[in-house]
Give the backbone structure.
Amino acid sequence: MSLNGKVAVVTGGASGIGRAIALKLASDGAAVAVWDLDESGAGETVNMITGAGGRAIACIGDASDVDAIAASAARTREELGAITILVNNAGITGFHAFLDISVDMLERMLRVNVMGPFLCSQAIIPDMLDAGWGRIVNISSSSAQTGAMMMTHYATSKGAVVAFTKALAREYASKGITVNNIPPGFVDTPMLRKSPVNVDAEAASANSPMGRPGKPEDIAAACSYLVSEAAGYVTGHTLGVNGGRVMP
Ligand SMILES: NC(=O)c1ccc[n+]([C@@H]2O[C@H](COP(=O)([O-])OP(=O)(O)OC[C@H]3O[C@@H](n4cnc5c(N)ncnc54)[C@H](O)[C@@H]3O)[C@@H](O)[C@H]2O)c1
């Protein structure tokens, strides 16, 4: 899948799924901007890409803050060029009983997981319109498909990401811009391992059809397809990558 000459932004590219996507898109030929709050993790991702001969920069900031997004977009354009691939991957999770979820907790979840992809897309779509070509991939969650105990705020936010994907896909389908989403299931990442309920990815996946948790690289491979030329007629799609755990 050649992405030579293209510039990709991967939010949350300092860790887990985002890092695997950044590495994969770089190996496909894209110059990659890693937008993340985590300076050392983002630097590591950039070093992994440049060490393998690719081009990458880290933009440190909150990918749900409109001013930080504008600053990261300006730096990415200046150092790498116009941005025509956006992967909205940065996200936060939470495990709380429904009645314990405060307004602040709900607002933070919706800000990062919903407003982040929304505002990053608003900042970058003008580049895609100029190019007459663009690819947006939103990382949602299988919890939006199945529901999830103790995660009403998270599942609500990810359900919004699926709806956002479809609405944006319709609005820009005639402009050469595709918008799709990948809802991961259990993927073995720091997010899963650090969760307060100590999710055991192996145990949680034991009863799924493939009997194993996902790897960040599984998600990255699907993302590589969705941003490729080959996927030019695919838009508004939810591409499950979950070992058969969810078959809608
Ligand atoms: N791991 C799973 O099983 C799983 C399942 C379903 C969905 N997802 C989704 O996949 C995405 C990646 O998850 P992961 O497991 O790799 O998590 P992770 O915690 O390993 O990585 C998330 C990255 O996002 C960054 N980030 C968080 N908030 C940010 C913000 N406001 N601005 C910029 N960067 C921010 C973090 O610093 C981190 O580097 C998330 O959207 C998550 O909801 C993960």
